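During the reporting period the student researcher (J.K.) took over the structure-prediction task from the postdoctoral fellow and processed the backlog of single-chain submissions. One of the processed entries is reproduced below for the supervisory committee.
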Amino acid sequence: MGKRRGFFAELNYQAQQAEKRQRQQEAAAHRAHLAAHREAERARKALERARTAAARASAAEKKAAEREAARLHVESRLAEVESMNMDLASDLADIDSLLAWTLDIDDYIDLESLKISEVKHPPFEPGGLAAPTPEVVKPECAPEPTYQEPTAPSGLSAVLGGKKRHQRAVEGARAAFEKEHGDWEISRDALQNRYVEAVAQREKTEAKRVAKLSAAEGKYRRECEKREAEASAHNAELAKLINGLAFDVESAIQEYVGIVLSNSVYPEVFPVEHEHEFNLASRELTLTVSVPEAGAVPSVRGYRYVKAKDEIASTALPVREKKERYANAVWQVAVRSLHEVFEADRAGKIHSIALTVGVNTIDPATGLPITVPLAVVAADRETFNRFDLAKVVPEATLQHLGAAMSKSPFDLVSADTSRGIRVRGK
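J.K. obtained the following structure tokens:
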């Protein structure tokens, strides 16, 4: 038997962890717990501000600022104590209600609900690749120069040397025009060449953009196809599991139990681990549940602030109370584990459960890892399903079932299985 959860069991476990966090956030106790933390943080920040103000104050103001800082320091420590006590109360309540936690929950797993009916794809986000490279604006060339013939002389001006002067003016105008036109042609050609180069560069840039966009689209399509393929494979495996359960395939029943156990969410202060193996011939499930050692249970009753010493002190729980709480937690885990499996198995595939609740620890004699069984019990479906678990005392329930039970789980005293566990106690 291994601790590794199956694929569907792991998916279900993660979903249940998220649901647990949501339930906690909605609970009034959790809101009070968060409020205590916020108040402690507010008081701490107020103290920091007061200390900063005291450091900057004048001599006259310093004493008043120091008194305020001292007051806020006490307030901060009291808020811290309240927060610690809220944490402690929450942890103790979680441990004391391990069985009650699951009674309001239907442990049956509707495997059809695990099917992926629709694959949700993230939108394609090409970013800057979506925008085409800006077109190159064709430049406007300066107007082409035109030749203007100097006005020919007439009348007396033409007789008195005007024709020669006009001829020279024409020659000068033609020379100036030819230079101006030549400069214009050079400017026009340069402008055109730059335009052609810019267009060519734009085409190269645009071609790269289009290629990158096409590659990004191809990658996105492949990712979508992969998600679709994974969803199809997921649904195919789930259909196989559902079909296997219908036809009493041993491995399918084994996997379904794994999903049920992954659905069993315990508080962080008291985590458990499950191992299981189903035997179709006997219709019996062998279930091993590992619980944390007694050190997981808080050993203090509460916290208080001692102003004279400026310290937070704790009041220890009596040893008897610690032992009773830990033992009760172990008995609750045992009854809860039987309940969760039998309730989830509506089809009655499992007729009996051989359960061991133990602790994985280190043998002080050898230094090697060992498992200390704290509760060992066999329960059949018909007997167990007659119990009203909302009214039972878990220890008495296990005794009624003929369980072998540790005389002191807190001290890791192993349960005595020498007389067997298949006959219910009288």
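The committee noted the following: The radius of gyration is 43 Å.
J.K. will present the remaining backlog at the next meeting.
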